[in-house]
Amino acid sequence: MYRGSTPRYNIYISGMQISDLANLQITFTQKRAIKIEKSLSDMTIDTEANTASFSLTQEETMDLEVGMVDKQIRVIDTSGQVTLTRIFRERVEPNVREDLING
Fold first, then answer.
1. How many Cα atoms occupy the beta-carbon half-sphere of 73 within 13 Å?
2. Which of 29, 42, 58, 60 could bridge to 38 as Cys pair (CB 3.0-4.6 Å)?
3. Which one-letter DSSP state was computed for residue 9?
4. Of 62, 83, 60, 100, whose CA–CA distance to 13 is shortest?
5. By the 8 A CB rule, do 31 and 68 touch?
6. Which domains are seen in the chain, by residue range?
7. What's the CA gap between 61 and 18, in Å, rounded?
8. CA angle, corner 83, sides to 71 and 42, nearest 5?
9. Plot region of 15 (φ>0 → left; ψ -120 to 50 → alpha; else → beta)
10. How many CA atoms lie less than 13 Å away from 7 in the CB half-sphere?
11. Among 81, 70, 80, CA closest to 36
């Protein structure tokens, strides 16, 4: 992703129905510090496709440092069972401008 961009993420839930989740969180960290966190209430849910989607804002990506960001998803279902994904790494690329673009 690029600093200052608005990347969209689509999370496909396998092995369970998204309608059976009490919550889903995705956490973005750098140097072990939480930089961004989104939960199910921040996402668009498609029960037919079994997906949750969200976008980051320009402000959120500008707060990230150039380098690597770690991402991990946690879910808790309505019975209280918690499942975590492995940690995914994504590169944060620089932007030649340090301001936001407005429309």
1. 15
2. 42
3. E
4. 83
5. no
6. 8-88 (2.60.40)
7. 27
8. 55
9. left
10. 15
11. 70
pLDDT per residue, tens digit, the chain (103 aa), is 999 999 999 999 888 999 999 999 999 999 999 999 999 999 999 999 999 999 999 999 999 999 999 999 999 999 999 999 999 999 999 999 989 999 8
Q: At 14, which helix (H) or strand (E)?
A: none
- Per-residue pLDDT, 57: 98
Dihedral in degrees, nearest 10, Cα atoms 1, 9, 61, 29: -90
> What per-residue string of b and e applies to 44-64 under the rule 16 or more CB within 10 Å gives b?
ebeeeebbbebebebebbbeb
Angle (CA) 25 58 52, round 5°? 30
